[in-house]
Specification:
By secondary structure, the chain is an alpha+beta fold. The chain contains four helices and ten strands; from the N terminus they run H-H-E-E-E-E-E-H-E-E-E-E-E-H. The chain folds into two domains: 182 residues, tt1808, chain A; 72 residues. The strands form three sheets. A six-stranded mixed β-sheet has the order 1-3-5-6-7-8, sandwiched between helices. It has a two-stranded parallel sheet with strand order 2-4. It has a two-stranded antiparallel sheet with strand order 9-10.
Length: 256
Amino acid sequence: MDTLLQEHDDALIEYPDCDGNPMSDNTLQFHWIVLIKENLETQFADDPNVFIAGDLLWYPVKGQPKVRAAPDAMAIFGRPKGYRGSYMQWVEGGIAPKAVFEILSPNNSREEMDRKFDFYEKHGVDEYYLFDPETNDLHGWTRRGGRLEKIANMNGWISPALGIRFELDANGLTIFHPDGTPFTSHLEEAREKHQVKQDLAIAEYERKRAEEQRSQAEQERKRAEAEAAAAVKLAAEQAAEIARLREQLKLQQPKT
C-alpha cells in the first residue's frame, strides 16, 4: 500500500523543462556556450552513447524537483543521443554527467557559483570547467577520492574524459579536439567552406586557363608546322618548275 501511495505521489511531481532563467546574459557568453556544446556534439557524433546538452535542466534525485542545475554544457557517457526536455538521472540509469562547463557572465555571483560547485561535487560530476570570457580566466576541477580537486595549471591541460586540450595565450582561450583541430563556430566553418570554394573556383579557372593556353600553343605549333611544310612544298615545286623550264629552254635552243 505504501509503495502504491509513493508511486502515486511520484507521478504527481512535476519536473519543469525550464527554470525561467535565460540561457545567457550577453552575446559573448552565448558564443562560448554554443561553441563548446556544438563542438562536443561534432566530436562525439559517431558515438551513439555520448549525449551532449546545453542549458538542459538536470534532476539528480527522484522526488526532489528543486534539486536541479542547468550546466551551460555537459557531456554524459553511456546514454543515447536524442531529445530530452530535461535530464532526470533516475530515468537515465543513474548516470551523472561526466563533464560540465560553466561560462561566467557579469550577473553570476560568487555565491551562485559556489552553490553550483557544491552541486556538481555532490552529484557525481567527474570534470568541471569554469571559464570567464571577459578576463580569460579558466579553472578546472577533477574528481579524486570522491571530491572535486582543482587542476593546478589549465594551460595545456587535456581532459581525461573528453580528450580535448585547453590552451591559453594573449589572444585568449583556444580549445582543441583530440586530433589537434581547434573548436570553431558555425560562422567560422561557413567562412572556411566559402574560402575553400573560392580557392577551388580559382584553381579551376587557372586550370582551364592553362589548358586553353596549352591548346592555343598547340594550335599555333600545328599551324606553324603546316605553314613550314607548305613553304617547303612550294619551294620544291618552284625548284622543279625552274628545272623544267631550263630543260625546255635547252631543247629550244638551235643546235650548232
